[in-house]
Design goal:
Low-confidence stretches: 193-200, 206-211
Radius of gyration: 25 Å
Strand order of the largest sheet: 1-3-2
Largest sheet: 3 strands, antiparallel
């Protein structure tokens, strides 16, 4: 586990135990000494506050026993934890990409349409494939060629085709046509089953579209 991952795990533990305690503090009996040492290191970074003598006296009165050590997150620690739990994932290099994923590069208008599609997930009867919204959120942009790069599973690619089909039906076919030409994945409701899904209505191999 890398150092920042260890730090996040400690911050998460402090947050959970502080919330469970009700008063925000994690007490000496709730963390092993090695973890307490990690907390002490995080104090030096301003992420954690250790209880002073007055705080320990108040906690001792509440607990009915001597409290010799207690810690809680500072606002900076809270924000670090919040950001860390939602941070963009590191983009894998082509050699590290999972075997079931394909590198897909989208032009800005395709990416804009895809953002609308995943943003409507809660309102759609055929929602985006699992993990597609995360791929959109963490996509990187190669500003030299003005392309957004994503690493998609086959199911996610078919879901993209569905989203671009919706975009096509409401104004512009260029984005769906380009995706079909470059990746051979297109959507048509004629291919959907009685219980339609974006993947069920997508086909691979050949564009199936004009333009």
């Amino acid at each position: 586990m890398r150092s920042w991952e260890r730090a996040l795990s400690v911050l998460e533990a402090l947050c959970e135990r502080g919330q469970a305690a009700g008063q925000g503090w994690t007490l000496d009996t709730e963390l092993l000494p090695p973890h307490q040492q990690q907390v002490n290191a995080l104090e030096n970074q301003g992420l954690v506050e250790l209880a002073c003598r007055e705080d320990r006296a108040e906690l001792s009165a509440l607990e009915g026993r001597p409290v010799r050590w207690a810690a809680r997150l500072t606002p900076y620690g809270h924000d670090t934890l919040t950001y860390g739990q939602s941070r963009p994932r590191a983009e894998p290099s082509p050699g590290e990409a999972a075997s079931d994923r394909q590198v897909v590069e989208l032009i800005p208008s395709q990416m804009a349409a895809l953002r609308v599609f995943v943003g409507l997930a809660d309102q759609l009867r055929v929602p985006p494939a699992d993990g597609l919204a995360e791929q959109v959120r963490t996509a990187s942009c190669d500003h030299g060629i003005k392309r957004w790069r994503l690493h998609l599973t086959q199911e996610q690619m078919e879901s993209v085709a569905y989203g671009l089909w919706l975009h096509r039906m409401t104004g512009s076919a260029a984005e769906a046509n380009r995706f079909g030409r470059e990746y051979g994945v297109v959507y048509s409701p004629a291919w959907a089953s009685d219980n339609p899904s974006a993947a069920g209505g997508a086909a691979r191999g050949g564009t199936g579209v004009s333009g």
